[in-house]
Design a protein that fits this description.
seven-stranded mixed sheet, two-stranded antiparallel sheet, Rossmann fold, 9 strands, 9 helices, 256 residues, alpha/beta, 23% strand
Length: 256
Amino acid sequence: MESTDSKTGEGDTTHFGYRDVPVREKAGLVHDVFTSVAGKYDLMNDLMSLGAHRWWKRYFVAISGITPGQRVLDIAGGTGDIAALLSRRVGSQGSIVLSDINQAMLDVGRRRLEDRGIVGNIEYSLADAQKLPFSDGEFDAVTMAFGLRNVTDKAMALREMVRVLKTGGRAMILEFSKVEIEVIRKFYDGYSFGILPRLGKLIAGDEDSYRYLAESIRKHPGQDELADMMVETGFDNVTYRNLNGGIVAIHSGSNG
């Protein structure tokens, strides 16, 4: 990945999909993408993953080790799928903070959770993953599903996760990764670039945003690279496991 995932100067660039853009502009471009797709985000996730994202998320939460009474931060929580699952795990004595940098996505998440009656242990925070507005050691666990690849400075976001974790607390990241099986990779590439943008145009009226989403997956660090980055930014006990041949991977690490 490019050098712009650390401190940058005014002239530095980073990737926005397959385009190079000034670092200072990426957050705004990503914001526009998710504002555009917020209303159709869950439907498009079903189409993008052929429904598999629902299983991935359930498995992600099932192996999280999160227990009743804990306080958990869900970063880039979007439309609330992970928060809903976590809410049941922490129970009435625990709490979930659903955070997202995009107000439109956060609004959709709040409406969906309230419509399902999930209200007693959920808080909401409009927050940048790179500059979390929380105290050091505030959370027992941190989760982030399908959000890290859209962050401009991933290392900064990872350091923030470590900072807000209690000693011994664990962070888990679910993200698209590098497909390791050749047959799956060929099918996946054809689907991602040949079919997905067309579905975006047909279903969500936004071909460009879904082309960006496909490109952003290919620009995201692979399994080993992300694991190394987590170690470098302060995580201990870093591990990962592939799902579906590496289409997605679950990375985890602890604060101490």
